Amino acid sequence: SLAHRCHHRSTAMPDVPFLPFCAFLGTLGLLCVAMVGTWCQHWRGGFSLDGSSRTFNWHPVLMVTGLVVLYGAAALVYRIPNTWSGPKLPWKVLHGGLAFGAFVLTVLGLAAVFRFHNSQGTPNMYSLHSWMGLATVLLFSCQWAAGFGAFLLPWAPAWLRALYKPIHVFFGSSILMLSVASCVSGINEKLFFSLKNGTMEYKLLPAEAVFANTLGLLILIFGVLVVAALARPSWKRPDSDSPDSRQVQDALGG
């Protein structure tokens, strides 16, 4: 029918190859990590474990690397065409392993900011950024534990996996966007705290503010592109074994 042809054309027209898209996304992620490291090294005094502001500098680097870039990579594992055939277990392990690596970096990032606050006598958990960030980490913890129990442990029945899979996918995208929001609000908060004296006022937009604002925009673009890739029907892994994927295929006319 005409409606079916129009629907097919609308899904097929912006046919971006997955692997070049992934290469671009990987470059963008590495750029975000390089930029947050450069910001902390060049403008914020570098890194240390002595409880000073140089200890705090580990916080943005570890959070951007773990909670955004590594987490985004973990989310996209099942979109790689090589995962669509053969045994699924190695890819499950890779997906869970990348997510666990992101979690470890995130916990270290939290430890850095709490150590800095405690050594300086600064209160913890007093800003919207801190509330949103901690909520994101707690949600991430629950997501990883539930995913491990449902998809990696052999005891989980097929009906439970089918029931939980769309929930897992939904919260995967939600946590990534919460991570992006936490990072962007954290960058803004740090700039407002740091650039407030003499010629370094934030309202004068010194080079550091331009650099960090650009970093925030790149993090946002990275997150949006990952979510867009996750939502793209033609990049989803065909999985005829589970009822939920059959319903998706039926809905798409597949």
Question: What's the short story on this structure?
Answer:
GO terms for molecular function: metal ion binding; transmembrane ascorbate ferrireductase activity. Homodimer. With 254 residues, the protein is mainly α.
Description:
- This protein is mainly alpha-helical.
- Helix content is 74%, strand content 0%.
- It has a single domain, classed as Four Helix Bundle (Hemerythrin (Met), subunit A).
- It contains nine helices and no strands.
- Helix 2 runs antiparallel to helix 8, helix 4 runs antiparallel to helix 5 and helix 4 packs antiparallel against helix 7.
- The two termini are 15 Å apart.
Identify the CATH architecture.
Up-down Bundle
Q: Low-confidence runs (pLDDT<50, min 5 residues)? A: 2-13, 242-254
The CATH topology name reads Four Helix Bundle (Hemerythrin (Met), subunit A)
**DSSP, total strands:** 0
Envelope shape: globular
Biggest sheet statistics: none
- Count every helix, treating DSSP H or I runs of 4 or more residues as helices: 9
Order of helices and strands: HHHHHHHHH
Number of domains: 1
Mean pLDDT: 88
CATH level-1 class: Mainly Alpha
Beta-sheet strand percentage? under 5%
Percent helix range: over 70%
Specify Rg, calculated over alpha carbons. Answer: 21 Å
What class do helices, strands and sheet pairing give?
mainly alpha
What's the N-to-C terminus distance?
15 Å
